[in-house]
Amino acid sequence: MNFLACPICKHYPLNLFIFSEKDEIIEGLIICDECKRWYPIIEEIPYMLPDKLRNGKDDIPFIKKWKKKFPKDILKKGKPFNETQL
Length: 86
Hints:
The chain is an alpha+beta fold. The chain has one domain. The chain has 2 helices and 4 strands; from the N terminus they run E-E-E-E-H-H. The mean pLDDT is 94.
């Protein structure tokens, strides 16, 4: 995590929230505190794509699945998707 930077604003370090793990992080969330963008970790893979490459087909179901574990500010105002798209 110390080497990851936000692909949009280049801020680091990023915050990590783990939702499911075994030997590795199965599902979780990487958050940029600077620009309020979030990036999902799905099936052990972090998806750190720029906004224009994210279409919501994976992100919206991810929000719905983990809504109770999302930080409130990201759930309400996170970019590029948040609960207003649910």
